[in-house]
Design goal:
Rossmann fold, 2 domains, alpha/beta, 380 residues, nine-stranded mixed sheet
Amino acid sequence: MIDKKEAPSNLAESEEANNQKQNKNTNFIQKLKEEIQNKTMNLNDNDTLQGNNTGLFTTLPANAWIEQAKKRPIPKMLFSEFWYESEVCILFSDTNLGKSILAVQIANSISQGNPIPGFKLEAIKQPVLYFDFELTEKQFQNRYSLNYEIAYQFDDDLLRVEINPDSDIPENLTFEKYLSYSLEKLIIERDSKILVIDNLTYLRTETEKAKDALPLMKELKALKNKYKLSLLILAHTPKRDLSKPITRNDLQGSKMLINFCDSSFSIGESSTDKGVRYIKMIKARNTEIVYDAENVCVCNINKPYNFLQFEFLHFGLEKDHLKAVSEKEKEELETKIAELIESDPTITDYAIAKQLCKNEANFNSFKVKVNRIHKKLFPK
């Protein structure tokens, strides 16, 4: 039992300890802010546009913008036409299709200065920060070793980053804010211009919602502009209809995320073989869409020795890899639609689609299909 005479002294000691902890957290954040400001002051000064500044805007004649752009380096390919320097690029696909496998392979290629066979690399060898929020170190070892024994030797310029589970988040900061500070500090310390973030869903829990996706992409673009970065960001898609071509609408939070990224490409699953994948361009700003539905990159996932990788096979048509809808499935859908209309002649196509659509993400296209079948079965 605590002696009442000693209680005030103990309380004072406890309060003093809390104050010291609070001061320590505040000092840490202040020091971090000052370090980031000092490191980036010259960058911002050198990058200031000499024009007519009005509030948020800088105005220059069109020719002056072009003359100023001539002073900047021409972006080079990091992964063929899919990803260029100084771009925020999003790589998305359904789960278990090999996003992380391809991303590590791209990072490895850049860190070595050697292109992946079948693809192009124009940029020079340089450091890459790979933020791995998906795999444990043991899972990573398994992918890049032979039976956990003979490990693949990465270049020292490839730096893998994990969240430190023992790290204390300052009390006055949210996890997201502390993550942003830590990310910026690491960029400065390592002087790396190439970042791979695996994956987006770890940084924000609900990226499919526009209100969460918008501030996230603004933060990443701000970092890109501030430090002249190239970012490859991995993202998931909801379950999609494998009989349909991949579009920008398949990305979670597609409207906001696609609008704020510079480029995007996706991995599709081939219906011809469970080990075959195809890579398709979704968005590009530095080039035309080269690898579209008529010219996808067909690859095989293989581990020839101790490095799990995509192996380029050939170029092909996306339609050759889509799941074919059988006649039986078509007949079953027509039968269900007919039954609903016969039981309630006033039912709308929207109501039918609501009852029968299995994937909300494909609702609009499914509704169009229902309308077409309705007209076929019950022509006016």
